[in-house]
């Protein structure tokens, strides 16, 4: 019998002392037996049982004694077929080698039997691969047990041999042996594992062990009876039942082991399925593999098993790994069975790892943006919420930056979505690159990003804003083109009691303000901004309703030939009275552009202009141009060409000129240029509005279908006072002439401006409050009538006459 504990930890001192004492006592008994034997030899013939063959000569001695000499070997063989009593954490092995002891005790004098038994026990331990300490303990244990059995049998046997009395003595001797062996083993395991001895003794299988043990040992007695009454060779007949019993024992042991392993595997499957994170999974798996194989040394590594090892491959969701254990042929199982068990275990765990990986991926996806890999809105809000709580306790500052790329839509429209995605990824990297580790950058969607800054002062926030503006302000390289790119940042500093959503809303509002102020800048949230934003949203809603109800009107401002004073055209300007109050066009047009409402507003303006065209033509008494302002969004809209065609069809005898600001033109939206080209092929002229302040390179004028330039008000504002302003306007005139373009000077408010335009600039066409203010239809009809005397020649007629 022997402890089979799996504990790999250091043995407690009490356990070491106990095991040492057991071994010492065994050795003492062995030495005593040897001494007694030597003494008997030296003092002449001993008891008949062993001296008879000896003194009768070698051949006679050999005929019976080979059996005894073989007994240590038999002990070793039988000992390797034990029954195992164990639980998950360790247990006891019960060998039936003591049946040989019973035989020896029945056949030989006590000392001789004990010496042979001790040699057998030692041989058994030398052929196992247990730890040296365990082997020493087992040797001591076997010898003490043997001595106890010898004592009981000698005391109870009496003089007669092969009687029921002797059988009873042997059965009691076997029981004594078992009791001592079982108890000492239990104490040893108990001490080693620091658990209760009772727990070791009372365990499932103990009863089975006693039930097997005594009958098994009685087999030794049977052998003794056979050898006493029949020729010695007849003992060989016992080999068959012995072998059968050993095989049966092994089958039972392995069957039990198999059942135990299934239970462990089932447990492992339950644990593996219940596991929620990969972090500890490998540790748990190794612990379960130790339990499964009953070996302390199991490891997970990337290298495959070596020659003295078994292993099973596994994938933990990230890497290819091996779980490896020592390869040992043992009573409870074979190397092949161990490998199979390990493979079953990894199959269970591989499933779990795949599930964990999937869960991890899904959690990551649910909380991150797939394109840039940055945290998404949900994760950002979580982090902001945590940061808010932390900052309340620590009293530190938190800022949330809402960044919206300027000009991103242009990239998407012009170069396609793949290029747009590349720009977003690049922007995400640049953002991450200019922040601290502890800051969080998230993508909120589209071209919107947010940055959470923790433990910051206002100065630090400003510095960060500058860094971000710089990082994103240098344009983006798309398909070999450098596309202008910048960002507008709204900053909100956390206040006590604020929620994450609240903070994000404030930052968002501040970002809108940054856009409204001209983009590429940061604006810090203030309460007034919130109110302005709400008003703006209300404005958009009212405007939406007004456009739907066609409640907008047009004012017309004449464009005049400066040499003759003749009106050559009018510009249609949208007017909106909201609740009886006139809303400034700049305010509602920018709100319409921001909200996308400008497309339907533009359609309405075209309709209104077409409806007024006949009256205007009649009043003018000849050809007249109507300039209509359009924004880039309209040009990008698929139905725009058709809309313009319908409008033109209704404007017989009136020319339609489409005005687009230079700013919109610079931000060349893909599609916008196409639309312009298609419309100008149909003879519809374009004017560039607010020319001179949009920072365009004038090279584009050569390649675009533009017929008219309208110089920005600011260019004419100072011409009568500033020589350089006058020079600038003159050079625009020269350029227009060279390119064959008409130039309209806007913003004429004073007589002195007109004089300068005539005398120094050579301007031909002008528009301004001094000449005519924007007027309602009735008023402009009156003005046109007065102007009638001088007819205007239509461009078509001009071309025909040329
Ligand atoms: P714009 O196209 O440059 O129109 C000329 C603006 O200058 C008009 O302002 C007009 O009233 C003003 N103006 C004319 N003469 C003078 C002057 O001598 N001095 C000064 N200081 N201003 C003068 P308004 O009507 O307020 O329109 C502002 C802008 O709103 C327009 O600028 C145009 O860009 C936009 N807009 C107006 N109607 C529409 C429309 O139907 N569609 C689109 N997309 N935009 C429009
Ligand atoms: Ca205009
Ligand atoms: Ca203008």
Walkthrough of the structure:
The chain has 30 helices and 22 strands. The radius of gyration is 52 Å and the shape is rod-shaped. α25 links the parallel β19 (686-691) and β20 (708-711). It starts with a strand and ends with a helix. With 802 residues, the protein is an alpha/beta fold. Helix content is 58%, strand content 15%. One calcium ion (CA) is lined by residues 571, 629, 659, 689.
Structure characteristics:
single chain, 802 residues, alpha/beta, eight-stranded mixed β-barrel, 15% strand, binds ligand C2E, binds calcium ion
Give the helix/strand layout.
Layout: E1 2-3, H1 13-42, H2 48-55, H3 58-79, E2 83-87, E3 90-94, H4 98-107, H5 110-126, H6 132-157, H7 164-193, H8 197-201, H9 206-229, H10 239-274, H11 281-293, E4 299-301, E5 309-315, E6 320-326, H12 335-367, H13 377-394, E7 398-406, H14 408-415, H15 417-433, E8 440-445, E9 448-454, H16 458-472, E10 476-478, E11 481-483, E12 486-493, H17 500-516, E13 522-524, H18 527-548, E14 553-561, E15 567-578, E16 581-583, H19 585-595, H20 598-620, E17 624-629, H21 632-636, H22 640-649, E18 654-661, H23 662-666, H24 672-681, E19 686-691, H25 700-703, E20 708-711, H26 713-716, H27 723-739, E21 742-746, H28 751-761, E22 765-767, H29 777-787, H30 795-801
The structure holds ligand C2E and calcium ion (2 copies).
One calcium ion binds at residues 689-690, 710, 746.
């Amino acid at each position: 019998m022997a402890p089979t504990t799996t504990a790999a930890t250091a043995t407690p001192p009490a356990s070491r002392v106990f095991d040492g004492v057991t071994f010492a006592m065994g050795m003492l008994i062995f030495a005593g037996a040897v001494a007694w034997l030597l003494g008997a030899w030296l003092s002449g013939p001993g008891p008949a049982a062993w001296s008879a063959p000896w003194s009768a000569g070698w051949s006679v001695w050999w005929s019976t004694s080979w059996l005894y000499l073989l007994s240590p070997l038999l002990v070793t063989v039988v000992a390797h077929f034990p029954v195992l009593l164990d639980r998950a954490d360790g247990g006891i092995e019960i060998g039936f080698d003591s049946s040989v002891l019973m035989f020896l005790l029945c056949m030989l004098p006590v000392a001789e039997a004990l010496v042979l038994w001790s040699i057998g026990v030692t041989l058994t331990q030398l052929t196992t691969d247990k730890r040296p300490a365990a082997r020493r303990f087992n040797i001591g244990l076997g010898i003490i047990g043997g001595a106890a059995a010898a004592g009981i049998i000698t005391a109870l046997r009496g003089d007669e041999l092969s009687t029921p009395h002797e059988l009873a003595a042997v059965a009691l001797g076997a029981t004594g042996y078992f009791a001592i062996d079982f108890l000492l083993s239990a104490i040893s395991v108990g001490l080693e594992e620091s658990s209760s001895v009772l727990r070791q003794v009372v365990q499932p299988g103990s009863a089975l062990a006693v039930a097997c043990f005594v009958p098994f040992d009685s087999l030794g007695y049977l052998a003794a009876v056979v050898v006493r009454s029949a020729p010695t060779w007849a003992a060989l007949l016992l080999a068959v039942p012995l072998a059968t019993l050993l095989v049966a024992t092994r089958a039972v042991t392995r069957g039990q082991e198999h059942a135990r392993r299934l239970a462990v595997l089932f447990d492992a499957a339950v644990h593996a399925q219940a596991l929620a994170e990969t972090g500890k999974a490998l540790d748990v798996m190794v612990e379960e593999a130790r339990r499964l194989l009953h070996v302390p040394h199991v490891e997970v590594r990337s290298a495959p098993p070596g020659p003295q090892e078994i292993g099973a491959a596994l994938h933990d969701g990230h890497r290819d790994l091996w779980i490896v254990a020592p390869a040992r042929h043992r009573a409870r199982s074979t190397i092949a069975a161990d490998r199979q068990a390990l493979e079953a275990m990894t199959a269970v765990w591989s499933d779990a790892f795949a599930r964990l990986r999937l869960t991890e991926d899904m959690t990551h996806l649910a909380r991150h943006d797939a394109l840039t890999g940055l945290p998404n809105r949900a994760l950002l809000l979580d982090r902001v919420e945590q940061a808010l709580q932390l900052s309340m306790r620590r009293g530190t500052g938190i800022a949330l930056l809402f960044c919206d790329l300027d000009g991103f839509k242009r990239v998407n429209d012009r170069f396609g979505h793949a290029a747009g995605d590349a720009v977003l990824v690049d922007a995400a990297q640049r953002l991450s690159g200019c922040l601290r580790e502890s800051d969080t950058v998230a993508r909120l969607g589209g071209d919107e990003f947010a940055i959470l800054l923790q433990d910051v002062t206002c100065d630090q926030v400003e510095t960060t804003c500058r860094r971000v503006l710089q990082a994103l302000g240098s344009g983006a390289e798309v398909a070999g083109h450098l596309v202008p790119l910048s960002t507008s940042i709204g900053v909100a500093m956390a206040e006590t009691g604020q929620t994450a959503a609240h903070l994000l809303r404030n930052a968002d509002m501040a970002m809108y303000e940054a856009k409204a102020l001209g983009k590429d800048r940061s604006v810090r949230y203030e309460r007034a901004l919130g109110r302005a934003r709400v008003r703006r949203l209300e404005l958009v809603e009212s405007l939406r309703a007004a456009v739907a109800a066609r409640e907008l009107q047009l004012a017309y401002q004449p464009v005049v030939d400066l040499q003759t004073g003749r009106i050559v055209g009018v510009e249609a300007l949208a007017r909106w009275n909201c609740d009886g109050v006139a809303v400034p066009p700049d305010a509602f047009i920018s709100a319409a552009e921001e909200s996308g409402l400008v497309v339907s507003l533009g359609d309405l303006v075209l309709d209104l202009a077409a409806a007024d065209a006949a009256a205007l033509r009649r009043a003018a008494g000849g050809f007249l141009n109507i300039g209509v302002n359009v924004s880039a969004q309209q040009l990008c809209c698929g139905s725009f060409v058709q809309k313009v065609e319908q409008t033109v069809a209704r404007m017989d005898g009136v020319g339609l000129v489409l005005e687009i600001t230079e700013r919109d033109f610079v931000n060349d939206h893909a599609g916008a240029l196409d639309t312009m080209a298609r419309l100008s092929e149909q003879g519809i002229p374009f004017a560039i509005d607010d020319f001179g302040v949009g920072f365009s390179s004038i090279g584009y004028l050569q390649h675009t279908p533009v017929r008219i330039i309208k110089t920005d008000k600011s260019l004419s504002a100072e011409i009568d006072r500033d020589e350089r302003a006058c020079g600038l306007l003159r050079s625009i005139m020269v350029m227009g002439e060279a390119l064959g373009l008409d130039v309209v000077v806007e913003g004429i408010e004073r007589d002195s401006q007109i004089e300068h335009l005539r005398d120094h600039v050579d301007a031909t066409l002008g528009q301004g409050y001094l000449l005519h203010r924007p007027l309602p239809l009735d008023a402009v009809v009156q003005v046109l009538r007065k102007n009638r005397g001088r007819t205007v020649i239509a461009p078509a007629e001009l071309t025909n006459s040329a």
